[in-house]
Amino acid sequence: MSVIYVLLAISISVAVCFFAAFVFSVKKGQYDDVYTPSVRMLFDDELRKDTDNPDQNKKQIKQTESTNQ
Amino acid sequence: MANTTCYHCGDECGKNGVQFDEKEFCCNGCKTVYEIFSSNGLSTFYEIEAKAGTTPNELRGKYNFLDNQEIVEKLVEFNEEGVQVVSLMIPSIHCSSCIWVLENLNRLHPAITVSQVDFPKKTIRVTYKTGDFSLKALVLLLGSIGYEPNISLETLEGKKNTVDRSLIYKLGVAGFAFGNVMLLSFPEYFEVEEFWLDQYKGVFRWLMFAFSLPVVFYAAQDYFVSAYKGLRSKLLNIDVPIALGILVLFLRSTMDVALDLGSGFFDSLTGLVFFLLLGKFFQQKTYAYLSFERDYKSYFPIAVTRLGTDEKEEDIQIYKIKKGDRILIRSQEIIPVDCILIKGTAEVDYSFVTGESQAVFKEYGEKLFAGGKQLSGVLEVEVLKSVSQSYLTQLWGNSVFSKDKASQFQTLTDRIGKRFTIAVLTIAFLATAFWLYHDSSMALNVFTAVLIIACPCAIALAAPFTLGNMLRIFGKHRFYLKNTNVIERLAQIDMAIFDKTGTLTTTKRETILYEGVELTTEETALLKTTLRASNHPLSRSLYDILKSNAIMTLDEFQEHTGKGIEGRANQHSIKVGSATYVGKETTAELANTAVYVSSDEDVKGRFVFKNTYRDGVKEIFADLASYMEVGILSGDNDGEREQLEKILPSQAQMLFNQKPEDKLEYIGKMQKSHQVLMVGDGLNDAGALAQSNVGVAVSENVNVFSPACDGIMDASSLGKLPTFMQLSKKSIQVIKLSFMLSLCYNIVGLYFAVTGQLQPVIAAILMPLSSISIVAFTTVCTNILGKRLK
Question: Where is this region: Disordered (chain A) (predicted)?
Answer without folding.
Answer: 46-69
